[in-house]
Structure formats: structure tokens, C-alpha cells
Amino acid sequence: ATSELKISVSAEYLAEQETASFDCVVLSFVMCEIPEYQKVPEDVLRVLKPGGCCIFAEHIGAPVGSLTRKFQDQVSGAWCFCTDGCNLNRHQNSYMEKQPWAAVFTRTYDTVVPVYIGLAVKEGSSSC
Fold first, then answer.
1. What is the mean pLDDT of residues 45-55?
2. What are phi and psi of 52, to 5 degrees?
3. Which pLDDT score is estimated for 126?
4. Is the Cβ–Cβ distance between 118 and 104 less than 8 Å?
5. Nearest partner of 27 among 51, 54, 49, 50, judged by Cα
6. Cα→Cα distances 65→30, 61, 79, 87, Å
7. In the prediction, which pLDDT does 6 show?
8. Cβ neighbourhood burial of 113 (10 Å; 0-12, 13-18, 19+)
9. pTM (2 decimals)?
10. Please, what sign has the CA dihedral across residues 18, 27, 12, 102?
């Protein structure tokens, strides 16, 4: 059997792909830089085959009012400029969790900034 591996670093690439054309999508610290990051989980779900999975790791905004969040908000503009578009205080996790996944396994690690990791599986027989 032949298999093909597609690798992309572009959200536009994902949006242009056919429905149900991927077995697995990996998001690794990319949603912080994508202007319309709210659409990414929806596009991921659309392009996954039934039973396909999304593996993700994203840094997220700390809880509002926390010392970490105050720091994120204060340095956000300069950070974004110096890192070519990385936003420290977005809540990508809420957009991942809004999708109708068959199963979602997540964990948030409180490091210097919170890191949200997980695996989400699309409804259908497994291809992961």
C-alpha cells in the first residue's frame, strides 16, 4: 500500500483541502500566529476523515486576572512584533473544545505560559 505524507505550515493550505482528505492533523504552536485562528479547528474537523485525529499543543492565555495574564497582556504587542506574529494571550482551547469531536483528551500545563495539549478524534471508524 502506498501512503502519502503532507506537511504544511499554512492555515490557508488547510482551508483549501478537500473534505475528509486527512487521517491526522498536527497543530503545534501555530494558532497563536494565524490571524483567523478561530476557524482552524473547524477546518481541521472538516478535512479529517471519519475517525481521523488532531494532535495539538498550543500556548494559551492565562486566566484573566492572574499575574501571568497581566504579564501576557503587558508584553503582547512587543512580543507579537518581535516573534513575527505570535499572540501570547489567545484562548485557542475554547475554539478546539467547541467542535463536535467524538472524543477529546486534553491537559493544560501551567508553565511560564499555559500550554494546552491534546488529542481530538472525529466521529467515525478510527484511522489513527
1. 96
2. -70, 165
3. 61
4. yes
5. 54
6. 25, 11, 20, 18
7. 67
8. middle
9. 0.86
10. positive
Q: In the 8-state DSSP scheme, what is residue 95?
A: H
Contact 108, 114 (CB under 8 A): yes
Distance CA 99, CA 52 (A): 14
Residue 36, all three cell numbers:
483567523
Residue 101 has pLDDT above 90, yes or no: yes
- Identify the band that residue 128 occupies on the pLDDT scale cut at 50, 70 and 90: low
Answer whether residue 103 shows pLDDT above 90: yes
Buried b (16+ CB within 10 A) or exposed e, 25-64: bebeebbbbbeebeebbebbbbbbbeebbbebebbbbbee
Residue 59 cell numbers, joined: 500556548
